[in-house]
Design brief:
Layout lengths: L27 H7 L6 E5 L10 H11 L4 E5 L18 E5 L5 H5 L26 H11 L5 E4 H5 L5 E3 L4 E3 L2 H5 L3 E3 L4 H12 L13 E6 L7 E4 L21 H14 L22 E5 L2 H6 L1 H13 L8 E6 L2 E5 L8 H8 L17 H6 L2 E3 L1 E2 L10 H5 L4 E2 L2 H14 L6 E2 L1 E3 L13 H6 L19 H11 L6 E2 L7 H4 L3 H10 L4 E7 L3 H7 L4 H17 L5 E8 L6 H13 L2 E2 L4 E2 L7 H8 L20 H11 L7 H10 L51 E2 L17
Parallel strand pairs: 1-2, 1-3, 3-4, 4-7, 9-10, 10-11, 13-17, 16-18, 19-20, 20-22, 21-23
Antiparallel strand pairs: 5-6, 7-8, 8-12, 11-12, 14-15
Length: 732
């Protein structure tokens, strides 16, 4: 793996003499109190400003402050004019624009494209405080406010739209967001190294147009081959069907130069004795550090779904910072140039970032207003970044990378103590010690050289790589040390758990189950059937069964009644109606009733989104003929798949009866234990279709806690009935 300058090795900018701001200013009045005449960098965000390391604008802002720069925050501005973008004055170096912690479209719309009623990242949960695809209008208003000021876009919204991408909400392929935003630089992945280097180079009076070589950034260049770079056609790597013969990536020549060679060859291809001369010519192997892979152009992938699938596959193959090539994609007369991904932060750098002087509370301007996302994480600690799971429906890997970046144990303990001693309302319970995946802390490849050369899309699929270290001892020690701290009553684990890794460490499962589960543990097998699981790159349901056995064993040993709450996805690419039916049968057989269901949402740039759009399997070479994937599309089939997950809801029974009859499975309709749904329909139900939730008493046929055969079903949010309170059988 290549190295990078230490994040904190730069000489501080002269403005460091102003010291640390109590909170980064959001008004001219706050700037005046700090003695600032201007800001060096202004961050524009779609989230409410919470000075906490779990909020991106706070983390980046405090990091830039530690470098000596004066940083201001413009939070959720009115995007209909440039007025709000002028409230802190003109930044000396650049505007940094982000949509926030979530993609603005995912934050605003459900998987059925319905507008959400609230926004967890806004004061009092108020919806509508940010525009759709907010990076674009925010950047445009910044340009209107102060022409000539560099604009740097980043965060997950920009990161997942760095090339031409399928947009689920408009059902079309959109061009790279940097083109629409008309920004100067796009930062993708973990952005610390990029924003710090950009700031220092601009402070040294470098022109923004000359800053084109930073890893983890994308820029717009004039279309054509870049001087000093060796271009490789992506179709020579993964051929999507019949195409024109690709240009030899080791012999880049123009058409005219090739013609000149042919003419000269005719003059020299015979010896005096008449013998034919055969010429062998091989180009010199080029520098990998200056090799770029040219992806099919935006216009091509917009019109050709197979080429889009191919492009998605190549992008995902080029995500390892140890071996990834630069990528380039033509957009009209311009090229979007993607430098290789950023070098992951070291443990020391991670500690430095999280040890910055956050107040860990919302900005004072919000007063007593509640910010739901903050309430969820105020007593939690992020211990790592990244995920090597590679789940195709998830965008974490595309944003944070596959290499795990972990904090030191001491740094984590320091933050827990800060929560205990300074966070208002703390009662002794740490709500989470986790990250994208709770139990990937300090897990890594056993060999750095193998890690740097690997192009696997997942370290745990189709099986756990033999080169992956799976020792959970550091995490076990962290858990034990944390729960032993004075004033800490309970340490819960709420982050997603990779149970196929957990079963390899019985000691970890024992520690987790005995001390860190609050009655329920949420895990995500996502499905029971191999078809959709293969397209998700998730382990088979047998692995879940193995984990459940261990979970139940150690819960019993601890004398606790605890339950696993499995989560599933409906309508994922690769899922058939039969798959969902089998999942519903499994749910009933195991006594699970889902209060909430999740329908697949194609997030930008994810592998599954490419499958959804193209109907092609992008986990292997993309072909025009073959490699097709079943894609549940349309409101009717998506509604049916969700209805199977909520087989117990009377509102869904008419839809399910019709489907089961068409599938030749009328045997699942009846009033016995072996049946999935009953033949009878409670009065007043079945007229609204999937999604209507009817409240009622326990024994009401329309109630949310319908009892069947005297058995109370487990739900995702409701505890099973106590044995001391038997449920009466419903009489018919």
């Amino acid at each position: 793996m290549q190295s990078a300058p230490n994040l904190f090795s730069y000489r501080q900018f002269w403005a460091h003499r102003f010291g640390v701001a109590p909170q980064l200013p959001m008004s001219r009045e706050e700037m005046d109190e700090l003695g600032w005449d201007s800001c060096d960098i202004i961050l524009v965000t779609g989230d409410a400003y919470v000075d906490h390391p779990s909020f991106g604008m706070a983390l980046i802002g405090r990091l830039l402050e530690s470098q000596g720069f004066r940083v201001g925050i413009i939070s959720q501005p009115d995007w209909l004019s440039a007025d709000d973008f002028k409230q802190l004055g003109k930044p000396n170096l650049y505007f940094g624009v982000t949509g926030g912690n979530m993609d603005s479209m995912v934050n605003r719309y459900t998987s059925d494209r319905r507008i959400r009623s609230n926004d967890a990242y806004t004061a009092d949960g108020e919806g509508g405080k940010r525009p759709d695809r907010c990076v674009v209008p925010y950047s445009q208003r910044c340009r209107e406010a102060y022409k000539g000021v560099p604009i740097v876009i980043g965060g997950i919204e920009a990161s997942l739209r760095r090339i031409a991408h399928f947009d689920y909400w408009s059902e079309k392929v959109r061009r790279s967001v940097i083109m629409d935003a008309k920004a100067d630089i796009l930062v993708f992945g973990n952005g610390e190294r990029q924003v710090v280097e950009i700031a220092h180079r601009l402070a040294r009076k470098e022109d923004i147009k000359d800053i084109t070589d930073i890893r983890g950034t994308a820029v717009i260049l004039k279309h054509g081959q870049r001087e000093g770079w060796w271009e490789k056609d992506s179709t020579s790597v993964d051929v999507p069907g019949t195409l024109n013969p690709p240009i030899d990536p080791y012999q880049m020549k123009t058409a005219s130069s090739c013609d000149d060679d042919k003419t000269q060859s005719k003059k020299n291809d015979k010896r005096d004795d008449g013998a034919q001369i055969i010429h062998f010519k091989r180009a010199e192997v080029q520098d990998k550090q200056h090799t770029v892979v040219r992806l099919p152009a935006y216009q091509a992938v917009k019109e050709d779904k197979v080429l889009y699938a191919h492009t998605s596959r190549i992008l995902h193959l080029e995500t390892n910072p140890g071996n990834a090539f630069a990528l380039v994609q033509q957009h009209g007369e311009r090229d979007v140039w993607l430098n290789p991904p950023p070098i992951p932060l070291t443990t020391g750098e991670m500690d430095g970032v999280f040890d910055l002087p956050y107040t860990r509370v919302p900005h004072k301007q919000y007063g007593e207003k509640n910010i739901p996302a903050y309430e969820m994480i105020r007593f939690s600690v992020n211990i790592m970044r990244g995920c090597f799971g590679g789940c195709t429906f998830c965008s974490i890997t595309e944003h944070e990378g596959r290499i795990i970046q972990s904090r030191s144990e001491d740094s984590i303990i320091k933050e827990v103590e800060a929560i205990r001693d300074t966070t208002p309302g703390f009662t002794g319970v740490i709500s989470d010690l986790g990250g994208p995946t709770a139990n990937m802390y300090r897990l890594a490849c056993k060999d750095e050289k193998i890690e740097a050369s690997c192009r696997r899309l997942s370290c745990v699929y189709p099986s756990i790589c033999k080169n992956l270290g799976t020792d959970h001892t550091p995490l076990i020690n962290l858990y034990k040390r944390t729960r032993a701290l004075p004033g800490i009553k309970k340490v819960l684990i709420a982050s997603g758990l990779r149970y196929d890794l957990a079963v390899l460490s019985p000691e970890y499962v024992k520690e987790l189950v005995t001390h860190h589960v609050g009655g329920y543990l949420k895990i995500a097998p996502e499905h029971t059937e191999d078809g959709p699981l293969d397209q998700m790159m998730k382990p088979g349901i047998g692995t879940y069964d193995a984990f459940k056995t261990m979970f139940d064993k150690y819960s019993k040993m601890a004398g606790k009644e605890q339950y696993l709450i499995p989560y599933f996805i409906a309508a994922h690419p690769g899922t058939t109606d039969k798959d969902m039916m089998n999942l519903a049968i499994w749910l009933k057989r195991n006594g699970f009733r889902a209060d909430q269901v999740q329908a697949y949402l194609p997030s930008p740039m994810s592998a599954a989104a490419a499958m959804y759009h193209s109907g092609k399997n992008t986990l292997s070479k993309v072909k025009r003929k073959g490699g097709d994937v079943t894609v549940p599309k349309g409101i009717k089939v998506r509604r049916l798949h969700k209805a199977f997950l909520r087989y117990h809801d009377p509102e869904n029974w008419p839809l399910l009866r019709e489907a089961l009859q068409k599938m030749g499975r009328a045997d699942l309709i009846g009033n016995g234990k072996k049946h999935l749904i009953p033949t009878w329909q409670p009065a007043g139900t079945g007229g609204q279709g999937e999604g209507k939730r009817v409240s009622g008493k326990l024994n009401s046929p329309t109630g949310n806690k319908l009892a069947q055969n005297g058995k109370r079903f487990q739900t995702q949010h409701v505890r099973p009935a106590s044995k001391s309170k038997p449920v009466k059988k419903r009489r018919r």
